[in-house]
Known about the structure:
This protein is mainly β. It has helices spanning 168-181, 200-209, 219-222, 283-289, and strands at residues 2-7, 13-25, 28-38, 47-56, 65-79, 86-99, 104-116, 131-141, 192-193, 197-198, 227-229, 241-244, 253-259, 262-267, 271-276, 292-297.
Amino acid sequence: MQVGRWTVDGPDLTHYSAGLWRNLWGPLGYSLRGRALVDRDSLGRSLYGFGPEITLLRRSRNGGGLTAYGISGVSLAWRAGGSSDIVALWDAGLGLEYKARSLLGVTLEVQRTAEDGGFRGFWDLAEGDRRGWLLSLGFSIRWGGGPRRPVPSHAPVFPAGHVAESSSTTQTDRIVETALAAMGEPYRWGGTSTDEGFDCSGLVWYAYASHGVQLPRVSREQARSGRPVPADIAQLRPGDILLFSDRPNVVTHVGLYVGDARFIHATPSGGVRVGMLDGTGDENDRWWLARWVGARRVLE
């Protein structure tokens, strides 16, 4: 929800908007926003619209903090009076979001906004089309995903690549349970917690770190942790890190074996989900199965 001011030639307009934002892939996100630009002195100059926007670098951060992002979009708006009933609104600008808590945030956006009565594009506006700077202040609310699970401070920490030899059965069970508890969380590039979502290596890192085992953060380095295990279901144990590759000589994706030919991983298309390694899964599972190249065992 945002409230602001659109400064144009003639009377300024008051801006009200509300939207729903989601991460799309990596640093890209999208939102659908409804808006009202109200001229209180002449309602015939007011605009009421709805449309999509693309954002760049807007994503949640652990423990809150300040995020700067880019934003651009176009809306169709109804104008109550004037020479045209429907116009396009073009927007491009920058935003700041501060999250004091994981669920609540404050936003400030500055955009260049143009009214396009002839639908000719922002590069070919008519002389009478209004244009100016739009400054908005608002708040954001995140829902879903549950609370963040912190890494227990009392848990023993093993160095990356270390093979532990004691109490490993119980520990690997807990690691697998932690990963399974994240089922359904959204995919977030660089994400490492239920507070923001996960990427593939972030999920594996989170499951192990929650129980005191320190792994490298990225997949290509996780592919060198522990000891190698062949790409053979019969030789896998729960907790093994599965390695996948869609390019020669490089690991591009990782997952966590959970037993019974199942593995859990985070993908851009499905978030955190469970797949099958025995060929009985869906098309997505079979795509990953064809790219399974090995596994690593961190705990014995």
